[in-house]
Amino acid sequence: MQRDSHQQCIDACYTCADACDHCAIACLQEPQPKLLARCIALDMDCAQACRMAAGFMSRGSPNDNAACALCAMLCVACAAECEQHQTDHCRTCAHACRRCADECSRMSHRKTRVETVAGTHVHH
Fold first, then answer.
1. In 30-87, which residue ranges form alpha helices assigned H by DSSP?
2. Is the pLDDT score of 41 beyond 90?
3. How far apart, in whole angstroms, are the C-alpha atoms of residue 65 and residue 27?
4. What is the separation of C-alpha 67 from the centre of its chain, rounded to a whole number of angstroms?
5. Residue 8 in 3-state DSSP?
6. DSSP character for 35?
7. 31 secondary structure, DSSP code
8. 32-35 contacts: CB < 8 A, separation 24 or more?
9. Is 2 helix (H, G, I), strand (E, B) or coil?
10. What is the CATH number that goes with domain 2-108?
11. Residue 77: how many CB atoms within 10 A of its CB?
12. pLDDT digits 0-9 by tens, 3-40
């Protein structure tokens, strides 16, 4: 099954999404959350991309490498932002983002699978 060969990356994506969700909520509870607006926005974008990439891999989508490339890009951006802050939640998030970026980058460089999906139109 395709999902088995992707499990390490799927797990990293879900771990990262959870860390990003926690970070965003924790940032909102900081004394001056407006100063963390970029961090919160990147947390939200990154969490969404991680869940999307995990879903693509779980379904065995032929586009999972593109989803992983986007996820890796957002994870790197989120990690870089979180690394600028000295809070535990940002450090934890940055670590999860770096791990996920590494996994997704590896997956995005695989050869694209060519598949046809039932009910789709094949161009000649």
1. 37-59, 64-82
2. yes
3. 31
4. 9
5. helix
6. G
7. S
8. none
9. helix
10. 1.20.1270.360
11. 16
12. 567 999 999 999 999 999 999 999 999 999 999 999 99
Looking up tokens 């991680």 gives 50
The answer to whether the Cα torsion of 84, 86, 87, 88 is positive or negative is positive
Phi-psi region of 116 (alpha: psi -120 to 50; beta: other; left: phi over 0): beta
* Residue 110 vs residues 69, 100, 105: alpha-carbon distances, Å: 11, 16, 9
Global pTM? 0.86
3-class secondary structure, 119: coil
Report pLDDT digits (tens) over 55-67.
Answer: 999 999 999 999 9
Distance CA 124, CA 115 (A): 15
8 within 8 A of 103, measured Cβ to Cβ: yes
Could you tell me how far CA 98 lies from the centroid of its own chain? 10
For residue 64, give both structure tokens. 């999972």
Q: How far is CA 70 from CA 34, 59, 64, 73, 117, in A?
A: 26, 17, 10, 5, 23
Give the start-to-end residue ranges of the domains of the chain: 2-108
